[in-house]
Specification:
Jann2411-like fold; 184 residues; two-stranded antiparallel ribbon; binds zinc ion; 7 helices; two-stranded antiparallel sheet; mainly alpha
């Protein structure tokens, strides 16, 4: 691997599906940043997530981005207390159903086995299934959009008081704290 994954992507979201949506950052800023700029980047992100695939085609990248944006829109709708678009729900369910990954416990950690014939759609199926688990799960009321400046990234607020405001304390939380210090 030539590039350091952590320099290219933000990998700190606890929820796999939301970590995937974080491959676009600064979503509500004037300059959103797309980090899945080509098929190689998608391969890199999947590998860093434990979903190793050998080849990723430009079509796979289009499918991945479609899934990612569907997850983002559904999550944001839920965070706003609104109904998600049925088109997005269909996309999510179709991609989840197309995957043939098998969960496996390996070295005390959860992993996945992908098929050799459709590894990328299997990997996307894992992401879609994780999204369904969160978006339709008992903690769906804790899904939030980050309040960091320009961020709006999705996160699951697991804090006891349900009062977390940032996708990550290390990035957005720190930015807000620093801007407060310079302002005072
Ligand atoms: Zn954020």
């Amino acid at each position: 691997m030539t590039e350091d994954v952590r320099r290219v992507f933000r990998m700190d979201n606890e929820v796999l599906a939301f970590r995937f949506t974080a491959t676009v950052s600064d979503r509500t800023s004037r300059t959103p940043r797309e980090r899945l700029t080509d098929a190689a980047r998608l391969k890199m992100w999947l590998g860093a997530t434990g979903l190793d695939v050998t080849d990723v085609s430009p079509t796979d990248l289009i499918d991945a981005v479609e899934l990612r944006e569907a997850i983002y829109r559904i999550g944001s709708a839920i965070a706003a207390g609104e109904q998600p678009e049925s088109k997005d729900v269909r996309t999510l369910n179709t991609i989840a159903a197309a995957g043939h990954a098998k969960a496996a416990l390996e070295h005390e950690r959860a992993g996945w086995h992908l098929t050799q014939t459709t590894p990328v759609s299997d990997a996307l199926g894992v992401l879609a299934t994780d999204a369904i688990r969160i978006l339709g799960g008992p903690d769906r009321g804790r899904i939030k959009n980050c309040e960091g400046p320009g961020c709006a990234g999705l996160f699951l607020d697991t804090s006891r008081g349900a009062n977390r405001r940032w996708c990550s304390m290390n990035t957005c939380g720190n930015k807000v704290k620093k801007s407060r210090i310079t302002a005072s």
